[in-house]
Design goal:
The chain is an alpha+beta fold. The chain has 2 domains: about 100 residues, Glutamine synthetase, N-terminal domain (Ubiquitin-like (UB roll)); about 325 residues, Creatine Kinase, Chain A, domain 2, CATH 3.30.590.10. Helix content is about 35%, strand content about 20%. It is built from 12 helices and 20 strands. The strands form 4 sheets. Strands 7, 8, 9, 10, 11, 12, 13, 17, 18 and 19 form a 10-stranded mixed sheet that branches. β1 and β2 form a beta hairpin. α3 runs parallel beside α8. The longest helix is centred in the last third of the chain and has 27 residues. It starts with a helix and ends with a helix.
Amino acid sequence: MKKSTIFEVVKKENIRFIRLQFSDINGQLKNVEIPVNDLERALEKGIMFDGSSIEGFVRIDESDMYLKPDVSTFAILPWTLEGKKSARFICDIFKANGEPFEGDPRYRLKLVMDKAKSMGYVPHAGPEVEFFLIPRRNGKPVFEFLDEGGYFDLLPVDVAENLRSEVAVMLEEMGIDVEATHHEVAPSQHEVDFRYSNALSSADAVQTVKLVIKTLAVKNELHATFMPKPFYGVNGSGMHVHLSLFSEDLKKNVFYDESTGDISNEMRYFIGGIIKHAKSITAITNPTVNSYKRLVPGYEAPVNIAWSLGNRSALIRVPNARGMATRLEYRSPDPSCNPYLAFSVLIAAGLEGIENKITPPEPVDKNVYRLNKKEREFFDIKTLPKSLERAIYEAENDPLIKDVLGEHVFNKFIKMKQKEFEEFSIYVTDWERAKYENL
């Protein structure tokens, strides 16, 4: 959308406020609201904010930073009321000297997109966002099921069906093409899928989807949580990521080999690169202590590093669709991750695979969940890290992760996650009290 068109829409829709949104290193969406009269200044020069107040950004002596709106992300917030209507932009972050802030997660993804462009590719991503809806009482979430529904169930079992429909309508009003919404496997669990697009737009869309879901949940006196494993004994929430590479003119899917009607060598190498770095990638795609309560056998989340053609039990699945729809599905990420950083490391690992022609192991056509130790050894199947502590160790010792995140994000991220695990390791849980109270 051109700037002139934006001003026309703002006037026609009587927009009163502009929200400038950006994400911190942990993937939390932040917001600065300005009156519409400051929109022209924001678009021309950016709006200054205190970067030292954002965890993981900068020190107080270098705190002046600028938010510069990306005009392609303009959208009216459909839940705001007439007379108080707001619109939003997702912003890039710049330092006072006009240079991009190296700690901006969106900037890290842009650098990876530039690398792909230099190789003649445009990476596309299509995430599937899962979440739980739970009651809210006295303004606080209560970790209880709203329903006992299962996969694809509907009313009267699914009390949140109307909310999901509302989410789909609002996302479409904000320019996000929703492909499907449905009840997921676990009670009170839901999923929103939206059409794939270039990886940067998809990461922006993930942040928008989460914002809309959380907002509508509150308006319906509910609470939406993207915590990977909020309940014991049922499936956790994942964020499966579909990835593909297109030519610069977007007329060819690089993952498809027209001469054979099958996947291309580039796709195999891309998979090889991801498999090589899967252990270290996990710290970014599964960045919380709770993430590893989901990555356990028995609950459909992948724990074994393998790839397959159509087989959903593998970490990397290649759906049967071919032609322009050829893609891979990386199944371990969860919605607690920062989508900009998660897409960055996944795509960078795949591009390294293409550059270095990393051949993956043979695809596994068996149910990986049911393979015993000897069978896994036969297929040379390794496992993902079983804890955040181990995932951090893998990331610390992988040069690709440091290169993709950049020194600033890498150091801040590792430090924050080490602190998080240390806090968890000394916390005494109710389970421990119940287990050991009579010792």
